[in-house]
Amino acid sequence: MSDELSSPGYDVPPEMQSHVTITRLDKIYNWSRRNSLWPMMFGLACCAIEMICTAASRYDFSRFGMEVMRPSPRQSDVMIVSGTVTKKMVPQIVRLYNQMPEPKYVIAMGACASGGGPFKEGYNVVSGVDKFVPVDVYIPGCPPTPQALLHGLITLQKKIDRESLSGVRWYQKAPIEPIPVPVLGPDLMDPRRYDQIFEYTHAPASPQPEGSAETPA
Ligand code: SF4
User: Fold this and answer.
1) Residue 151 C-alpha to ligand 1 middle, in angstroms?
2) Which residues of the chain fall below pLDDT 70?
3) I want to staple 130 with a disulfide (CB 3.0 to 4.6 A). Which of 49, 86, 135, 203 is the partner?
4) Is the dihedral of CA 211, 213, 215, 217 positive or negative?
């Protein structure tokens, strides 16, 4: 049995140590998941080239248990969002995420997926995929190197090590929130709310209560 699995505090007789280990359910559950993360095979833009390099022979993320990239979301448990997230692609990305079985994780690879990157506030790009799917690990860079992606994947493994069966989100009965479909236009303001924003910004200032202090110049 692997030393990684043993929980401290339990003495196993020396003659049994190569056959028996005592551990916690959380620990064996996390250990099995963290060592068999299968990323989904899809890419969005230039960052995807670095992701492909990370899977190829020089960096070879199979060494960390990301054995095969799966072409079907139904066989994947990690979504690596590698590239610019356009408003046109968001519904497809969310659909792929919804088709993945739980437990599932998301990595935002690069500046674009994390916050819009060089295209932030472009009319057709969202300021981060985390507004639409829950992100577990963010990887900075434009593009991040294969080493940075490997670091992100190892960070995800460390995060899984700290999870508990009683706290993970897929066993909670949380209501499913509808995902807002983005529309073309500036990203800081939703064009569907322009009328509301106009009314708010053009409303007369409310009168100051009597005796209130003047705002210093
Ligand atoms: S972060 Fe840079 S390299 Fe990655 S998709 Fe955006 S522009 Fe391309």
Assistant:
1) 18
2) 1-4, 8-9, 176, 180, 187-189, 191, 209-217
3) 135
4) positive
Q: Which of 102, 101, 106, 88 is nearest to 42 (CA)?
A: 106
**Do 81 and 107 form a contact (C-beta atoms < 8 A)?**
yes
Residues in the chain: 217
* Cβ proximity of 92 and 152 under 8 Å: no
Which ligand 1 atom lies nearest to the CA of residue 47? 4
CA of 191 to the centre of ligand 1 (A): 26
Q: Whose CA is nearest to atom 2 of ligand 1?
A: 142
Q: Model-level pTM? A: 0.81
| Average pLDDT over the chain, rounded to an integer | 86
Residue found under tokens 């799966």: 70
| Residue that is written with structure tokens 């072409």 in the block | 71
CA of 160 to the centre of ligand 1 (A): 27
d(CA 103, CA 126) in angstroms, rounded, equals 26
Determine whether the shortest distance from the Cβ of 84 to ligand 1 is under 6 A: yes
Each residue of 113-150: pLDDT tens digit? Answer: 999 999 988 889 998 999 899 999 999 999 999 999 99
End-to-end CA distance of the chain: 72
